[in-house]
Every structure is written in structure tokens, then in C-alpha cells.
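Here is one such protein, fold included:

. . .
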Amino acid sequence: MDIAYIPSPSRGVLHLGPIPLRAYAFCIILGVVAAVWLGSKRWVARGGAKHTVGDIAVWAVPFGLVGGRLYHVITDHQLYFGEGKNPWNAFKIWEGGLGIWGAVALGAVGAWIGCRRRGVPLPAYADAIAPGIALAQALGRWGNYFNQELYGRATTLPWGLEIHKTLPDGEVVNGVFHPTFLYESIWDVAVALLVIWADRRWKLGHGRAFALYVAAYTVGRFWTEWLRIDEAHVYFGLRLNDWTSIVVFIGAVAYLVIVGKKRPGREDPASIDPAAHAEAEAAGEKAAGDRAADEKAVAGTALAGKAAAAKAKAKAKARAKGEGPSETVAGDKPSRIVDGDGGAEADPQPAVAASTAAEKTGKDAENPI
């Protein structure tokens, strides 16, 4: 009986004419968008301005990409330097190879620069974006699937991942392996949900939500790293990233405990983002202007109504005194009122017509022909 394993992707790049659209890059971009979206919602809920997270991300994301690539190249330098290796391949980021530790470390430097420019405290910003970073990692891991990389040991489990690829050294890999990309993606989503829940439950602030994300992530990373079989540096029986996970976990837990005792609770919402005050003032001025316009419109309507009522009252009064024109039937000429006489003045036109007729009759009598 054949088991339905996770199939290997048919391709990792789609060519739109001469332009290659790489799934790895698309997954990273999608992760960045998700992180900024979720981080912005959390930042606004904490009292910040809605564009602050995106503005700071303009600094953090490029720094993070550079840091992630540097970490990978440094820790796996044997892939790019040495006999028979091409150092220029170190710049081919689309082929995979981003170290999360370097991405977080150098990304924090970029975020610090962005925060200083906007007058925002870095710990508060880190707390807001922590679940978004975990979600970005969950989406980014699918880039490893399309590149058929970073898989685990061989397995017969029904969710095993089929791999069919040729390594740079010419070795052909065919088999079913642990889908470590999927394990870590699921774990990252769980970490994001954990941080959101814990933050609501205990009102984590001053960088503690970010520390919780780091501590929780390293636990899952230690396990998935242990399953992987790709080439890596091993020290005392553990891969380098396992040792890194242990050190980072200890540091994150220590930060949680120490800062939790010294600075419990969250930052004052009024102190985390100067841009929020500017947005509030602008919104208040707009609301005041709208209210003034509404009041002016209402006053104008009332004034127009009073004027119309006064005019109607004047007309009614004039009719009552007999000063207005009399009503006429359509097609007739109105009669003219003579001062001191209630009757209508006779129309002079019939008299003129009679005089003319009489004159004509006299002439005709003198000239019968």
C-alpha cells in the first residue's frame, strides 16, 4: 500500500518573460507584510500611531536581511569559500540561506535606528511586533519547501516530504524525509498565538513579550535543528544552531525574570509614540471643524426658515388689507383699482373703437362709392 507523502514542489521559480519570480523571495515578502500588518494592529492598540511600525520596518527589514545572510555565510563559510567554491554565490540570497539569529540581531539594530528617529522606545516596539516576527518566520519557512532544502532525517511517516534534487556537488537525492520546514512553520504559528495570549493575560511590557517569543522559538528550533541532516558545524555532539538556541533561551528567560521584577506591567500609552499625539490633535481639529460646519449649516437653515415665514406673513397681511393685486382668471387681464372707488375702471379701448366707427360712417355717407 502506497502512502501519500507530501510531494516535492514541481518548481521553485516561475519565469515571467525574462523576469524570474522566485517562491523563496515571495514567501519572505509575504512574511514581512504579515509582520507589519499584525505589528501595526498591536501598536495602535497600545496607544501608538498607525504608520509607526511600517516606518520603522523600512529600517529593520533591510538590516535583518543583511544580518540573516551574514550569519548564514559566516557559519556555513565552507559552502562559499575554499577550493572549488565560488565566493560570488554568497550573494545569491534567492537560493536560500538566511540565519534567523543574524536577522534578529541586525534587524534589531535597524529597528533601534528607526525608533530613535521617531522617538519610540525600542522595547515597546519589540513587544508589539514579536508575534508578527513569529508569523513571518512561519510563512518564510515555506520558501525552504520550494527550494527543497533544510529537510530532516529519512522517515516513513505519512507526512514525510519527498525530495528529488541534485546537490551542487552532483549528488542526487531521492527519498522521503522529515519536513522540518513544516514542523517549524507550525511551531512559529503556535509561538505567535502564545505571545498574543500571554500579553493579554499579563500585560507584558518593557520588552518581555519579545523575550517570551525568543524563548519559545528557541525550544522548537532546538528540536527541528536536531532532526536536520544538512551540513553544519558540530561541537560536543550538537550542531552550532543548537548551542545558539541554548544560549539565547537562557538569555531570554533571564530577561523575562529580571525585567518582570524591576518593571512590571506595560509602558504608559501616552509615552510610547509622539506621532500618536500629532494624529490625535489632527483628528480633534478635523472634528472641531466638522462640528463648526454642521452648526453653521443648521444656523443658516434656521435663518432661511425665519425669513420665509416673515415674508409669508407679510403677504398674508397685505391681502387682508386689500393692498395686493386681485386674483384673476387665467387669460384675462387684471382690473385696475381706482382710488376711492371700489369698482374697476372701464377699459378705454371700446370707446375709441366706437368713435372711429362713427367717423368712418360719416365719410362713407359722403362717398357712397
Q: What stands out?
A: The radius of gyration is 43 Å.
